[in-house]
Amino acid sequence: MSGRPPMPPGTWGKISVTRTKTGTYQAEARYALFSGRVAKRRARAHSESAARTALIQKLQALKGSDVGDGELTPQRSIAELAAFWLKEKEVDNKVSANSLRAYRSVVNNQVLPAIGRRRIADCRTSVIDRVIKDRAATGADVTKLRNALHQMFGVAVRHDAVPANPVKEVARISRPRKEITYLDLEQVNQVRALIDTEMKRKRPGPRMSADLRDIVDLMLATGCRIGEAAGFIYPEIDLSSETPTLTVSGTIVTETGKGTFRQPWTKSDAGYRTLFLPPFAVDILMRRMIESPANRNGAVFTTRNGTWRQVSNWERLWNRVVDGTAYDWVTFHTFRKSVATLIDQTVDSKAAQAQLGHANEDITLEHYIHKAKVAPDLTDYLERFRPPITPKT
After folding, report:
1. Using 50, 70 and 90 to split pLDDT, how confident is the model at 1?
2. Cα–Cα distance measured from residue 297 to residue 230, given in angstroms and rounded to the nearest whole number
């Protein structure tokens, strides 16, 4: 004979009410704790119905404290799922304050107004598909929305609130391919000339140092983001080996209340990478090692006070160089795209992906490589359409 089936955590059994010797009423029920242990819980009142109500309220409060915060169920709302997901992000050491603000913005402005009150169990693929398509119909970029929902339901899957992630099968929103702007070798040298001109220009205040020219050249030598290049540190640069290398292990961020600092991790796990350095990059780093004063961070680039320089400060310097020129469309990210395009043209897109530190080759192909489609050489066949030679009369 099989025993009584176990009670799921957070549930209770039949409530029984008895009258005590003092004349009050006592309601009692078995309650399953989060640990799996079953314990009796009681409540007293001056009437049978009041005792039952008091016990139910007590059990519901117990569920909120004992199971509710630690367990997701299909009956929970999307708002509760979002709060649960954000709480996980808050304790993740690799999520910056800026990223948390972005996540909260997507939740508050896009997720909650659309489906905040729906139960997790009610949000099938068709529901999420509609949410994303409705948002896309307004002309908005739905990349962040889709990413947030995918992560949220990933948490729900891990906690057995849904059997599978409904976002995975949502149809992709096709967008016109943006023309990828990059610099060829001749243009790169023209941009370098603009930097040199700006360095020589007389302006009020301190003259522009060689920092901007050096960081641009190192971005071209590595394909790194501006935040990564601004966070280069000498302890992770090896110039003495036969094949000099540089390890990308962090990035510069600025957060309210914390200031500017080097975050000791990259944008993604794939971003943590060791790169081989071309000779011209080795020359730059050797010169800076000799000429630049030492600093407590071992940083390649610092302010005059030896502190980390904000990315926005680099961007202001760059705008001084290109504003009002034929290259005012060039940003620091243009150098990254130029590196990707050159590597793709000379090696392949897989090599470009590894150099840039992308987790997915599709990202490199779609957003970083300028690639015109080249048809196969069919000229021998097309030559058959040559018009016949008209005889001279």
Report:
1. very low
2. 12
- The model's pTM: 0.64
Cβ atoms of 36 and 70 within 8 Å: the answer is: no
Residue-wise pLDDT for 215-250, tens only, equals: 999 999 999 999 999 999 999 999 998 999 999 999
Task: Work out the pLDDT band at 267, boundaries 50, 70, 90.
Answer: confident
Based on the domain organization, do 153 and 197 belong to the same domain? no
Cα(204)–Cα(249) distance, rounded to whole angstroms? 37
User: By the 8 A CB rule, do 71 and 84 touch?
Assistant: no
Question: What is the spatial distance between Cα 26 and Cα 128, in angstroms, rounded to a whole number?
Answer: 47
Reading across the β-sheet that carries 38-45, which strands appear in turn? 16-19, 25-32, 38-45
Q: Are residues 201 and 148 both part of a single domain?
A: no
**Residue 142 pLDDT:** 87
* Structural domain containing residue 22: 17-68
Q: In 3-state terms, the chain is what percent helix, strand and coil (to 5)?
A: 45, 10, 40
Residue 66 binned pLDDT confidence (cut-offs 50, 70, 90): low
The DSSP annotation for 181-223 comes to P---HHHHHHHHHHHHHHHHS--SSSPP-THHHHHHHHHHHH-
- Which residues sit opposite 273 in a β-bridge? 248
Can you tell me whether residue 368 is helix, strand or coil? coil
